[in-house]
Amino acid sequence: MNQLNLTDVTKYVEENIGTFHQKRIERLNKLKLKTVLKKKNPYLFKAKHLLTANEIVQGIADAYISSGEETIFGDWLEGLAIFINQKVYGGWKSGIPNIDLEFDKDNVRYIVNIKSGPNWGNSSQIAKMKSDFKTAQRTLRTSNSNLMVVSINGCCYGIDNRPDKGDYFKYCGQEFWEFVSGDSDLYTEIIEPLGHKSKERNDEFMESYSNMINKFTRDFIKDFCKSNGEIDWNKLVEFNSGKKK
């Protein structure tokens, strides 16, 4: 085990955080109004008494952005965790399907599946992860039958007061970052570098976001509003049901 140098962590974050922001913008630029409208419930818009095109457009855009950012940032944090673990324990990005990180500590091989937060999956997704862990264990023991393998579901934020799940352990937030780094304070120490040039990056994102909202509002009015400006709910419902393109 090597002592973690926080300067290395700060440098990694500052050199790579731009990737997260760039992917946010790229995903935003790929968004199509009618594609996302097809996936939304028009009856809910009506029930919430939404009266303007802008309200509807901004609501669906914000929901889309929020769900995407969680995934994008989760992937980015996975890379950070692997980088930190490599520095401390010599860990590596696993080549086993659906395993993110492998490393050795105290004669134990840890296999880690990294998620963003603790509430990441339903029962079938968790069952799939457990199956992936068992497959990975069999793969590793094929070459070394005496290898002790421990499976970990690591979550970058949150808390779980029952980490022992029987087939695997679930470490969240502070426990996860201490697990990969050996540093009990890392979960708070990485906050500062994450803000590197955040204002400039967010200003760039907001410019793209504002342009998209304006463009989508214009298109919504053209396709789903009456000549007096009122939302044509029948037309919106017909489009959502596939009757009209």
Describe this structure as you would to a colleague:
With 245 residues, the chain is of the alpha/beta class. It has helices at residues 6-30, 33-38, 42-47, 53-89, 123-143, 174-181, 186-189, 191-194, 198-224, 233-241; strands at residues 92-93, 101-105, 108-115, 149-155, 169-172. The chain has a 5-stranded mixed sheet, sandwiched between helices.
Structure characteristics:
245 residues, alpha/beta, 5-stranded mixed beta sheet, 60% helix, 11% strand
Q: Determine the fraction of residues in helical runs and give it as a percent range.
A: 55-70%
Order of helices and strands: HHHHEEEHEEHHHHH
What is the alpha-carbon Rg in Å?
Answer: 23 Å
- Put simply, the count of helices is 10
Major sheet = 5 strands, mixed
Structural class: alpha/beta
Strand content: 5-15%
Short synopsis of the structure:
Helix content is 60%, strand content 11%. The protein is built from 10 helices and 5 strands; from the N terminus they run ααααβββαββααααα. A hairpin with a 7-residue loop joins strand 1 and strand 2 (101-105).
Task: Give the topology.
Layout: H1 6-30, H2 33-38, H3 42-47, H4 53-89, E1 92-93, E2 101-105, E3 108-115, H5 123-143, E4 149-155, E5 169-172, H6 174-181, H7 186-189, H8 191-194, H9 198-224, H10 233-241
Parallel strand pairs: 3-4, 4-5
Antiparallel strand pairs: 1-2, 2-3
